[in-house]
């Protein structure tokens, strides 16, 4: 193929198509990054809720050891139950997000993505290898 030239308009069209595909891939990457951030925030929220539940349980134990009014005790128990429910809901949501993220990654690993995307990713990898080699 060396020595043959490609007409400038074909070259520009191919280049434009590649740029468009790169833009699409960058958009997809940004979306995955946003999803990752959201997942990280959910993990942080679950951790914070766990800490709060633990603190309230400890407070409840301390209240049980000391004489306390039944209203205070009932309020603390209600808070513990509500926080446990919130923590379970957050854990379920987090699990669903992680499962979706894993399924997307699994499809990508198994090659179950559009041929155009695979082609572009291969070209990007090839360009990166050439740049790393200093060409």
Automatic annotation (TrEMBL):
InterPro entries: P-loop_NTPase, RAI14/UACA
Coiled-coil annotated residue ranges, if any: 8-42
GO MF: actin binding
Domain of life according to the entry: Eukaryota
Keywords: ANK repeat, Coiled coil, Repeat
Name listed for the protein in its UniProt record: Unknown_gene_8574 protein
Organism: Phodopus roborovskii
Lineage, opening ranks: Eukaryota, Metazoa, Chordata, Craniata, Vertebrata
Gene this chain is encoded by: unknown_gene_8574
């Amino acid at each position: 193929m060396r020595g043959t030239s490609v007409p400038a308009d074909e070259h520009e069209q191919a280049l434009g198509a590649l740029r468009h595909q790169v833009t699409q891939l960058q958009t997809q990457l940004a979306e995955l990054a946003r999803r990752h951030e959201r997942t990280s925030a959910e993990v942080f929220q679950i951790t914070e809720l766990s800490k709060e539940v633990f603190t309230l349980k400890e407070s409840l134990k301390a209240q049980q050891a000391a004489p306390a009014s039944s209203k205070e005790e009932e309020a603390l128990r209600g808070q513990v139950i509500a926080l446990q429910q919130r923590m379970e809901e957050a854990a379920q949501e987090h699990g669903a997000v992680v499962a979706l993220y894993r399924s997307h990654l699994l499809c990508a690993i198994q090659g179950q993505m559009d041929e155009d995307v695979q082609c572009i990713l291969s070209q990007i990898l090839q360009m990166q290898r050439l740049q790393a080699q200093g060409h």
